[in-house]
Amino acid sequence: MNQPFVLALLRNPRQIGAVVPSGQSLARAMASAAAPTGKRILEIGPGTGAITNALLAEGASREQLCLLERDDKLAAYLTAKFPDVRVINGDARSIADVLKPQASACFDIVISSLPLLNVKEVDKIRILEQIFSTLDQRGILVQYTYSAKAPISPSLANRFGVRGERTAMVFRNLPPATVWKYSYPNGYDFRN
Ligand SMILES: C[S@@+](CC[C@H](N)C(=O)[O-])C[C@H]1O[C@@H](n2cnc3c(N)ncnc32)[C@H](O)[C@@H]1O
Prior knowledge:
It holds the Pfam family Methyltransf_25. It comes from Sneathiella sedimenti. This is Methyltransferase domain-containing protein. InterPro entries: Methyltransf_25, rRNA_Ade_Mease_Trfase_CS, rRNA_Ade_methylase_Trfase_N, SAM-dependent_MTases_sf. The chain is of the alpha/beta class. The chain has a single domain, classed as 3-Layer(aba) Sandwich (Rossmann fold). Helix content is 35%, strand content 23%. A seven-stranded mixed sheet has the order 3-2-1-4-5-7-6. Helix 3 (24-34) packs across helix 4 (50-57). 41% of the residues are buried. The model has no long low-confidence stretch (mean pLDDT 94). Residues 5, 15-18, 21-22, 44-45, 47-48, 50-51, 68-71, 74, 91-93, 113-115 line the site of S-adenosylmethionine.
């Protein structure tokens, strides 16, 4: 049993949005879709750090990795677990504020475990605005979902000018999950 995760789940089941942490196969599939070597990475909703571990194993640099976790106890847990990685206790709805004075477009990769299907549409749009503002024009968003559908609807993806592709289906996870990667076709950027 992963105690920090279970306690966070009891505190706020909707915010956690899963009954167990990401399994190793899913974490590896996420890290592999991100191809993190040499990239500036923002991980959102890292929880207990399963995907963080996979990113580091896949070549992510600790100096270029930033973790954004809303649950204060999980954020403290991550700080203790990854002392040389920047951990921010904050909300993905306000990424620009929590990262200040860092400029926009300052990450190559956003990798997210946010339970987007549990999030109200208005909050989802706000989170996506924040994510795509923080991403470089050639950057990517990697997100998993437990749904058969894409984690970002095609119409919402269109609104942000990004295209989604399914990069992996992970059956050895509880529940099985699908990994999606979003990027700007030909460098299109919704901010222009
Ligand atoms: C499905 S869990 C993450 C599981 C994680 N991959 C692991 O293995 O432990 C989702 C995480 O997103 C965090 N979260 C949810 N909403 C958030 C928000 N608006 N901003 C930042 N983190 C958020 C939750 O606190 C939780 O830690």
